[in-house]
Write a structure and sequence with these properties.
single chain, alpha/beta, Rossmann fold, 4 helices, 6 strands, 19% strand, globular
């Protein structure tokens, strides 16, 4: 990591972890990996952005309104809280998405002002991890590439919900084909 970089952690919330309303297999396994990236970002004074689904009780993505998902990450509920093991520093910037009852945003760039914040901060390169590989991480990575950022996906710091078998693998292929770099190891890339 170097100046001009930012770490973006996507939706590591209780409802996406085991026992949650929309549990991702192994969702909690990303926490220690992302904690190491958080520590490294802090060591190098790299800004950290964290997204969260922040849905109202009758969100358009919920099955009761014709969406594909059970109710999850409802504002102010324990399921919407970040995983308790995720060590977020006090200066982290939290970006809420999906808060409009009639709009759904998988991407961290959807209604959050993230593009403007990154440009103002002089960010050129994003390191992205979190949940889920095949939805929010995929859409965030693709949007970031469209906006001209260099993207590194921390593959071991993501997990897929895999509604269909191999959705996660296909998502990573989409991201790579679009121009992102897939970081496959557990190690933190410093000074690349």
């Amino acid at each position: 990591m170097r100046q001009g970089d930012a770490l973006l952690i996507v939706d590591v919330q209780n409802d996406f972890c085991p026992g949650g309303a929309l549990a991702v297999p192994g969702g909690d396994e990303v926490v220690p990996i992302l904690n190491r990236w958080i520590e490294e970002a802090q060591r190098h004074n790299i800004p950290i952005y964290v997204t969260r689904d922040w849905h109202p009780a009758r969100h358009v993505s919920f099955k009761e309104r014709g969406g594909p998902w059970p109710p999850h990450c409802v504002q102010g509920t324990p399921g919407a809280a970040f995983h308790p093991g995720l060590r977020l520093p006090s200066n982290v910037e939290i970006l809420s998405k999906g808060y409009d009852p009639d709009e759904d945003h998988y991407s961290a760039f959807g209604g959050t002002g993230l593009k403007e914040k990154l440009k103002q901060a002089g960010i050129k390169r994003l390191w992205i991890g979190g949940l889920t590989q095949d939805y929010c991480v995929r859409e965030t990575s693709l949007d970031a590439l469209r906006e001209g950022f260099e993207i590194h996906v921390i593959v071991h710091g993501t997990r897929a919900v895999n509604v269909n078998p191999d959705d996660g693998r296909r998502a990573l292929e989409d991201i790579r084909r679009a121009g992102a770099i897939l970081e496959g190891g557990h190690d933190i890339a410093v000074g690349k």
